Amino acid sequence: xxxxxxxxxxxxxxxxxxxxxxxxxxxxxxxxxxxxxxxxxxxxxxxxxxxxxxxxxxxxxxxxxxxxxxxxxxxxxxxxxxxxxxxxxxxxxxxxxxxxxxxxxxxxxxxxxxxxxxxxxxxxxxxxxxxxxxxxxxxxxxxxxxxxxxxxxxxxxxxxxxxxxxxxxxxxxxxxxxxxxxxxxxxxxxxxxxxxxxxxxxxxxxxxxxxxxxxxxxxxxxxxxxxxxxxxxxxxxxxxxxxxxxxxxxxxxxxxxxxxxxxxxxxxxxxxxxxxxxxxxxxxxxxxxxxxxxxxxxxxxxxxxxxxxxxxxxxxxxxxxxxxxxxxxxxxxxxxx
Amino acid sequence: xxxxxxxxxxxxxxxxxxxxxxxxxxxxxxxxxxxxxxxxxxxxxxxxxxxxxxxxxxxxxxxxxxxxxxxxxxxxxxxxxxxxxxxxxxxxxxxxxxxxxxxxxxxxxxxxxxxxxxxxxxxxxxxxxxxxxxxxxxxxxxxxxxxxxxxxxxxxxxxxxxxxxxxxxxxxxxxxxxxxxxxxxxxxxxxxxxxxxxxxxxxxxxxxxxxxxxxxxxxxxxxxxxxxxxxxxxxxxxxxxxxxxxxxxxxxxxxxxxxxxxxxxxxxxxxxxxxxxxxxxxxxxxxxxxxxxxxxxxxxxxxxxxxxxxxxxxxxxxxxxxxxxxxxxxxxxxxxxxxxxxxxxxxxxxxxxxxxxxxxxxxxxxxxxxxxxxxxxxxxxxxxxxxxxxx
Lengths: 337, 391
Hints:
The complex is a heterodimer of chains A (about 325) and B (about 400). Helices cover about 30% and strands about 25% of the residues of chain A. With about 325 residues, chain A is of the alpha+beta class. Chain A has 2 domains: about 35-150, CATH 3.30.1330.10; about 160-325, Phosphoribosyl-aminoimidazole Synthetase, Chain A, domain 2 (Alpha-Beta Complex), CATH 3.90.650.10. In chain A, strands 9-11-8-12-10-13-14 form a 7-stranded mixed β-sheet, with helices on both faces. Chain A has a 5-stranded mixed β-sheet with strand order 1-2-7-5-6, with helices on one face. A two-stranded antiparallel sheet of chain A has the order 3-4. In chain A, strand 13 and strand 14 (about 320-325) form a beta hairpin. Chain A is globular, with a radius of gyration of 20 Å. The two termini of chain A are about 35 Å apart. Helix content of chain B is about 35%, strand content about 15%. Chain B has helices at about 1-10, 15-25, 40-45, 65-70, 75-85, 105-110, 125-130, 150-160, 175-185, 195-200, 210-215, 225-240, 260-270, 315-320, 350-355; strands at about 30-40, 60-65, 90, 115-120, 135-140, 165-170, 190-195, 215-220, 245, 270-275, 280-290. In chain B, the strands form 3 sheets. In chain B, strands 2-1-7-8-9 form a 5-stranded parallel β-sheet. In chain B, strand 8 (about 215-220), helix 12 (about 225-240) and strand 9 (about 245) form a beta-alpha-beta unit. At the A-B interface, helix 7 and strand 14 of A face helix 1, helix 2, helix 3 and helix 6 of B.
């Protein structure tokens, strides 16, 4: 079915987003260099040096929420797109689209967060742009787009063609915090026991893995959640995936709220978590390296790439059942009872 | 929250689950069709992959237990008309946001500027009415006996506050009368009764189903062990041909239910006719407001006939257990959670959404990407002479 008008679902990271890319952008940009399967493009520039280059847009309502805000999100999000390609993030550029009526206090707070996040990661913000637009009846908003460039340090590329059957899947930590933090702030939920976003730079956690040649593939698990990333991986490689529900780290706070709200934590977004596919022989070494880092201390081996040539994700449920994990679809709304 | 979660994990014990599944499989010798009334049962069953542990003799079919799904399309269109009026602030549970009306969904209306607030508790509507006296705040009350007490509490409090800018679209439904109408013409072999509703109304309220209609019935909770305990009760009842009501959720459900909740319902509502999708108007399967509270109630200007109800989807058959979602030619093709044609594909308790997100392991997921409309062979209408037809 061809897309007539853009709807919210086209931005949710699910099958509608895939359809949007397939219909509009891929046919036009693929031939002129687009590398759609990676979080950042890899650009060899000679002498064995490869640059990683990426861009990402950020809109979040509300712009401030427990654990993070639009500013640190826009810096760390782009840093992470570079970091999961095995690169050291170096320089960022940022563009602001600000609607009329945004307060300068709010804008300053966001800029300060960006400054702090960049400094914490030793990254420089070297170029920027601002545009002001009419605010059309909705709350005044700030959209931030950041582009980043880094140098690949991993000794072998972390990308899809290296993934093969038997690879072990390692999740770097608990899932679901970011979406619940934003939803909590949006709807004034969890005020007694706030859930903080996991927004953080993944670079320090991934640095110790650069010398390990058997790391095959790394992705940050943002929009669409673990379920989304796993389905993309299955489709990109053509192999099936087997997961153990029991092994997926989820905090009891997130688990409890998901039960109440009717959310499946597999589809919640994260801003400081990575999924890795590594050779079976390197799995325990990788886990122990991740375990030494702050962000990777809850890392867990959650499943593996199967030799099944059906690109589906199968979950062995914690009670001993089996089911498929579908790609995410649609926006999240809480339920009645 | 941490402690609450820990106390639930024992209801997901793989060992206990396997023991219960074995017992059910041994007891189920012939083919049996069990109706799981509540949408949350459907979700739990599929999310935990329980089907892969149970005999194929046992088939679970959906029932009319998803509040969004049983809401009449005309009522949905009415809600959307109200949301479209500039002076109105519509307060709703999240499930309703993406339900398609004849002219789009509440989510689409919200993106075009309609003032629609998603809440977790109806009481929040009163905070909004107090804080924004210039707005006409309209609470959309859908749900069953489970949701009725908190809506009742909201109405009582609105009355005490003498609010003049608060009204309610009262679409709450009474499940047990509806089940009696439904089963008067066709009954499943057994009934897995909804633990949430039973928490409020009590075990005894369900006793009429086995006593009058001879249907083996078991009240069950929603964790895998809870559900299996209920199914095991049913398997035993079927084996011994002894229909009764059992309570497999005793940690929550009592004989008489929650007395405070029941008295709130009693003081606020009286049984009234209600429109049910797929069943038509049922005389006592809804609620009306009592006495002075009637001033909060809104009535539709006219009975709306919706174009979305005329054959676009099979929701009305799915919620009565007559069709599986997979039997609908639009399922997973023209109808997805991103582009739902009916409420069953939207709600967190909807049967079609449960089957979409949690497919059968052997289900074909190949979707022909076609722009051609699927032709739908509509089965005969559900309502017949025995049931009152829609006005």
